[in-house]
Amino acid sequence: MDRAWLALAVFSAVMAIYAFIPASGERTYLVSSNFPVKALVNGVEKVLPASVGYGDKVCVPETVYLDEGTRIVFRGWAGGGRDLCVTVTDNLTATYAREYLVHVYAQPPALRRSEWVEEGSFLKLDYPSIYNESDGVRWVFQAWSFGETPFQPSNRIYVAKPLRLEAQYVKEYRLLAISSHNVKVNGSGWYREGALAVVAGPKEVYIGNQTRLTLVEWMSAGSTPAIVMPQSSPGVAVLEVRGPHIVLAKYRAEHYVSLKGPQGVIYAGWVGEGDELRLTAPEHIQLGQDVRLRFAGWSGVEGLRSPELSLRVSGPVQAEALYVKQYLLSVSSPVGAGGAGWYDEGSKAVVTVPENPPANIFVKRRLSGFTGDCGECVHSKGVLTLNMDMPRAVVAVYISEPDFVNLGILAGVVVAGGAAYIAGHWRPGVKKTVVKDEDGGGLKNPVCKTCGSTVPADAVVCPYCGTSIGSNGLQNHPTRRRLTVEV
Hints:
Layout: H1 2-20, E1 28-33, E2 38-41, E3 44-47, E4 50-53, E5 57-59, E6 63-67, E7 70-77, E8 85-87, E9 92-106, E10 113-118, E11 121-126, E12 130-134, E13 137-144, E14 154-159, E15 163-179, E16 189-192, E17 196-200, E18 204-206, E19 211-220, E20 228-230, E21 236-240, E22 246-261, E23 264-272, E24 276-280, E25 284-286, E26 291-299, E27 308-312, E28 317-332, E29 341-344, E30 348-352, E31 363-372, E32 383-387, E33 392-402, H2 404-425, E34 431-437, E35 446-448, E36 474-476, E37 480-486
Parallel strand pairs: 1-9, 9-15, 15-22, 22-28, 28-33
Antiparallel strand pairs: 1-4, 2-3, 2-5, 5-8, 6-7, 7-9, 9-10, 11-14, 12-13, 13-15, 15-16, 17-21, 18-19, 19-22, 20-21, 22-23, 24-27, 25-26, 26-28, 28-29, 30-32, 31-33, 34-37, 35-36
């Protein structure tokens, strides 16, 4: 291409020499250029070099494109002047410079550029080492495709032909690892697109001895979702970086709850803040047949009196189930009694029994007193007060006495009736069957020798007269037989 233009220029110059002296003898001038271009002479297009007359107007093009990557650009007239159009007063030479198109390709697109560079010159390129595209997105320089300093952001290239140069960058995203409760976590920073990032935080953070923060999970918290994968190591998670991510380490406040009772620990463990703790303490704890503990409330927890505990945890809890010792009071009485049951230790128990209970028409009962665990057993009209500082068993003792008034009346009635009967029914030599008492070896019923009352088989004290009954204190009722006698 260059040789063809040179041959054309030589040919044009030779032809101009022949055309320089016109036949008419009129003076002419030569207009030429260092590159073959077309000029307008008085509006008529001519290929330079060309002969022109004095006073002619010559206009040359500013830019001539030789191909898609090469052009020549007008620099001025030899001897001075840079106007594209001039009036001929002397020989003229238009000076052009060859330029090549240089493409600088880069990712991100904002750094791409194209420019024309004069042949044989150096092009200096100053690019940033880090280009911030947007919040959380940046490009980091790696290298140039060629040049004097290809591994530096600033480079210089020699232009002798059309060029395509590449500035190589890699894309990075910012990962922000945060946490609730201001716990310090690791993993924040810039990561290449597609890289795996590891974030980590402490599994537990203790705030004093009774409160701690426990890591619940890692979760995506930004506008660009991230898939966070928990690992086997406590507090560690991994994610693939595909954008500017924000990941949150979610912590939960937990408080230590300790509940104790007489039998030891009822509950001991960590409970999440705001969670509800439900449990039940035993209402009674049996220590023996006649001794037990009764639930009385909670210490360390305000306003709770029931053994069923429902507590919304907002802080550490140290509580104890309070119990009161109770003793059993047993009361035995043949005619009934009041006051038996369980009593708190140190409390007063009142036993009541009837002082003169009804018996039958011929026998009267009277309260003789109390025996058992009652000390001196002092009572007032059947009312016995006891201090319950131990288990107690009390027996009400009664005495049975004959009712002589009723017996006298009965005796008079019997005598009168007997006399009347004999007078009206006696016949000599008539046999009658009557019932007489006679020891016939029948069932033997224990009775008290003192008062003659029937007593229970397992009794050790006569409930009617208070006599201590042993083997010698019992006698048998004779059995009754039917005998035929002559009366």
